[in-house]
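Cross-check.
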Amino acid sequence: MNDAAIASVKSAIKDQDPVAVPTPDVRRFVRKSALLTLGIVSSALVFALLLGPSSGEAVAVLVSLTILLVWVLTFLAAVLVLSFANTRRIVRLFSTRSRRPDDLADAWLDGPG
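Predicted model, tokenized:
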């Protein structure tokens, strides 16, 4: 790119409003986990019917552990996504402070080398 094109891109970027960070939709995670749980339970019922009454206890244990794992991972993902979104907002808040080129944001960090 030539200097004129770079200058026009920089001015266009400078004039833009900061992009709003979208809020993560935790309800989507929970909804998908609920549907996955429903699928696991319905599959377990089919397996229990096909394998007979002697396998009902083993199927119930496997289903219980699988559902527990699904929900633990769901809530872990929700916590991580929300904390990451909040961290992004905090970083964006402090990085978009306007400064003059001759103004130091932090004298200790930006001081003479």
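Residues 24-97 form one domain. The first helix runs from residue 3 to 15. Passed to J.P. for a second look.
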